[in-house]
Design a protein that fits this description.
Elements lengths: L1 H20 L4 H22 L7 E7 L2 E5 L3 H20 L7 H20 L3 H22 L6 H26 L16 H19 L8 H5 L4 H26 L6 H23 L4 H28 L3 H36 L9 H4 L2 H14 L6 H14 L7 H34 L11 H19 L1 H7 L15 E2 L2 E2 L11 H21 L19 H4 L3 H11 L1 H4 L1 E9 L6 E10 L4 H19 L7 H20 L1
Antiparallel strand pairs: 1-2, 3-4, 5-6
Helix pairs in contact: 1-2, 1-4, 2-3, 2-4, 3-4, 3-9, 3-12, 3-17, 4-5, 4-9, 5-6, 6-7, 7-9, 9-11, 9-12, 10-11, 10-16, 11-12, 11-16, 12-14, 12-15, 12-17, 14-16, 14-17, 15-16, 15-17
Length: 653
């Protein structure tokens, strides 16, 4: 039944793409997109916990059969990723034009993501991967929310194509032992260095989409050219598909005897990427840029858990490896819901103010309660506050790295301890980041006239926020649905809860219960509510803030996004390398300033040292090769003659 639902979902997305190409019935096309997403979610619910049977597709690649099969982990990530995509498709992009192209891009991206989740052939996976990237670019280019959208999208495509080339080499190396491009555990007899090389290629290829270093630098500018609806799709189902593909490549395609050094490298890349992206997210003043860095941060945390699973497996701890892999799945499930809710919140800010700046809007007081509840729950989850899903998954993350003392090697134990410290720093910065975006972006008072948040948008944000809470409260039940998603042949997932208690395989080490917290925390909230109710007979005295003895505008003297993040910018100036510039515009008179212009920014971490030298090299190389395009026929014939001579020489040898 699940395969039938998936097939219908894919058909609906294809029809939506065709309607968009014909520029006909775009509202119908959006409904078809949402209906396909709902069918995909239903397929995940029906197919878990055992997955679905393999289906032979009526096509062949390189003379080989192509099969489609959704594993339990794929169903899990796909189901949670499609939830925000469904609501984003219904609400659509707030861009005033380009709706047809945007719908087409969404459809292509979803079809590509479905292929990444289910195609069991290396070459077919590459085609689906490219479709997913193409769909994202089409979405961004058709929204026209940024007048200079071409350059960021081109930069994104350049890095993604670098990753695609790395994946191509990885698939070719995987096919070397038996000549099959289908992928799979074909490197059992390969030397360790070759397995590590393939693992690094997979990490670079899929990491380009996940935002691992140095690829996360395309995130803020590319996401900032599009809408929150686009961000919800790219940080939900697309990001989840990339993580699943990376996990399948490292855990299934490579032999179980891969050296532990590859797991250490994956952990290091994940933790360092999480720290850097969290630090850069805190400095952003655009909703989309901040949330994009946060998406890269959460993907990096999941990748660190993937590395921990590899390290535990190499050391012979299959149960702990299953724990780490499952924690990565839990983390991205909650992230997809919460991040989708905040991206749709960003679109509400745009519709109300006309921009995506993190500034005072007072939308919580002016909007529907469902809007405020959904945005609050999503922000709480992404800042790992109880009892939300993000708190549960990050608690599991720390419990996993604490298990590093089971490793035999001192290097492994040190890596896990340092990873724990790095992830703790990431969690602290993430908390401050979402205090900033929620407190300033939604709570800050303003006297400006703003458009109200629509009922549909409020309902969408509220539903995603409540889904985040439901995911946390129902985690014991959700874990039963992941019982078969463990590729290590153990029953570790069922040992991650003891009744309503969540435990890291054993209740004697640590435990929490988000299900009970959902009941207990409202009861504890009755205490301050009773105190407030009992003190109403006393008058509340309000006094203005001292402002040099002058009358002041509360909005002008309140905390801004810059002042909130400036302290951390100063502390970590060696990372940020902040730049500030003040310009005085005068009307010819030196001492009479007409306008004061202040600009500030943080320098990219890898741009000056990695991407700029590569760009310079490519430009110089193209200048040197320009002579080959002289237009002289005799020169071209000479080139052909030299090539023929080389081919004949190779054939004779």
């Amino acid at each position: 039944m699940s395969n039938d639902l998936v097939a219908i979902a894919a058909l609906l997305w294809i029809v939506a793409a065709l309607l968009a190409l014909a520029r006909r019935a775009l509202p119908v096309a959006r409904v078809l997109l949402a209906a396909g997403c709902l069918l995909g979610i239903l397929a995940a619910v029906v197919g878990l916990p055992n997955g679905v049977a393999a289906v032979l597709l009526p096509t062949r690649l390189a003379g080989e059969a192509v099969t489609f099969q959704l594993a339990p982990a794929a169903l899990w990530l796909m189901g949670f990723g499609l939830a925000p995509a469904c609501l984003a498709a219904l609400l659509a992009s707030p861009a005033p034009r380009g709706q047809a192209g945007w719908v087409f891009g969404v459809a292509i991206s979803l079809i590509g993501a479905l292929g990444v989740f289910g195609l069991q052939h290396g070459a077919a996976l590459l085609i689906a991967w490219e479709l997913m990237s193409l769909g994202g670019a089409v979405m961004l280019l058709n929204e026209h929310l940024n007048p200079d959208s071409g350059r960021p999208v081109l930069f994104m495509l350049g890095l993604l194509e670098f990753g695609a080339v790395a994946l191509l080499f990885a698939v070719l190396l995987l096919s070397a032992p038996d000549g099959s491009l289908a992928g799979g555990p074909a490197m059992a007899a390969a030397p360790p260095w070759l397995a590590v090389s393939v693992g690094l290629l997979l990490l670079a290829g899929f990491g380009a989409k996940l935002g691992l270093l140095p690829f996360f630098e395309w995130f803020p500018n590319a996401y900032s050219t599009g809408s929150g609806a686009t961000g919800a799709i790219m940080s939900g189902v697309v990001l989840n598909a990339a993580f699943f593909a990376l996990g399948r490549g490292l855990l299934e395609w490579l032999a179980p005897s891969v050296p532990s050094v590859l797991g250490i490298i994956v952990i290091a890349v994940g933790v360092v990427s999480a720290i850097l992206t969290a630090l850069y997210a805190f400095q952003q003043e655009d909703w989309r840029a901040l949330l994009s860095f946060s998406s890269a941060e959460n993907a990096s945390i999941a990748v660190a858990m993937l590395g921990a699973a590899m390290l535990f497996r190499a050391d012979g701890h299959a149960d702990l490896a299953g724990l780490a892999w499952t924690v990565g799945l839990l983390h991205l499930a909650g992230h997809a819901l919460a991040k989708g809710g905040l991206f749709l919140t960003a679109d509400c800010v745009y519709r109300a103010t006309g921009n995506y700046l993190i500034a005072h809007t007072d939308l919580l007081r002016r909007g529907h309660p469902m809007f405020g509840i959904g945005a609050l729950f999503a922000a709480m989850s992404l800042s790992a506050m109880p009892p939300q899903a993000g708190f549960v998954s990050e608690w599991y993350v720390f419990q996993t790295v604490f298990q590093g003392f089971h490793l035999q090697s001192l290097t492994g134990r040190l890596v896990m301890a340092i990873a724990g410290a790095g992830l703790a720093l990431t969690a602290a910065v993430a908390l401050a980041t979402f205090v900033k975006i929620f407190g300033i972006g939604l709570l800050g008072r303003t006297a400006r006239h703003l458009k109200p948040v629509s009922a549909g948008a409020s309902a969408a944000v509220g539903l995603l926020g409540l889904a985040v809470l439901a995911t946390a409260a129902g985690m014991p039940r959700w874990l039963d649905g992941l019982a078969a998603a463990n590729p290590f042949g153990t029953d570790a997932v069922r040992s991650m809860h003891d009744g309503l208690l969540l435990v890291p395989l054993t209740a004697t080490f640590a435990f929490i219960s988000p299900t009970l917290l959902v009941v207990a925390m409202p009861l504890l909230a009755l205490v301050p509510l009773l105190l407030v109710a009992g003190s109403r007979r006393y008058a509340v005295r309000r006094a203005p803030v001292w402002y040099g003895g002058l009358d002041h505008d509360p909005e002008r003297v309140s905390t801004t996004a810059l002042t909130f993040s400036n302290a951390l910018r100063t502390l970590y100036s060696f990372v940020y390398r902040p730049r500030a510039q003040t310009e005085h515009e005068t009307n010819g008179a030196r001492y009479f300033v007409q306008r004061l212009v202040f600009t500030h920014d943080v320098a990219p971490f890898f741009g000056p040292y990695v991407f700029r030298p590569l760009t310079w090299f490519v430009v110089k190389l193209s200048d040197g090769l320009r002579g080959f395009q002289s237009g002289h026929l005799n020169l071209y014939l000479a080139f052909i003659g030299v090539l023929l001579a080389i081919i004949l020489a190779i054939a004779l040898l």
